[in-house]
Design a protein that fits this description.
Peroxiredoxin_BCP/PrxQ; oxidoreductase; about 140 residues; Glutaredoxin; antioxidant; disulfide bond; alpha/beta; thioredoxin peroxidase activity; 6-stranded mixed sheet
Length: about 140
């Protein structure tokens, strides 16, 4: 999978580190922006714990670049234009937004361990307390 700059991010980049991999519907929408800014504001604290962060959705590299620049996002955003990874993880599915059903990414956060296993998965993430829920025992 590539990031906003076209650099390939592979399992090797995740191995031997803890990683927050969060899936969100779309760049530059209110809730998605709030979520990205929240991760950015806590990035130093997370990195201090040895945790890296990547956001993922179906937007293009260009849209990700614009989103990062506009909101000073401090981590890479990965491009999943065909939703391959989201489908593999059952994150791309039928959802209802404002009463309308459509296929799309359901806001989901994964905490991945150094051995690439999913340590924690939070479906239908509530952005306001996402980190508290992620690190709750």
């Amino acid at each position: 999978m590539v990031n906003q700059n076209g650099d390939m991010i592979t399992e090797q980049d995740l191995k031997d580190k803890r990683t927050i991999l969060y899936f969100y519907p779309r760049d530059n929408t209110p809730t998605c922006t709030t979520q990205a800014i929240d991760f950015t504001e806590h990035l130093a604290e997370l990195q201090g714990k040895g945790i890296q962060v990547f956001g993922v959705n179906g937007d293009t590299m260009k849209k990700h670049q614009n989103f990062i620049m506009k909101h000073n996002i401090g981590f890479d955003l990965l491009v999943d234009e065909d939703y391959q990874l989201a489908k593999e993880l059952d994150i791309y599915r039928l959802k209802k937004v404002f009463g309308k059903e459509s296929m799309g990414i359901v806001r989901t956060t994964l905490l991945i361990g150094p051995d690439l296993t999913i340590e924690k998965r939070i479906d239908n993430v509530k952005v306001k307390n996402q980190l508290e829920v992620l690190f709750a025992e």
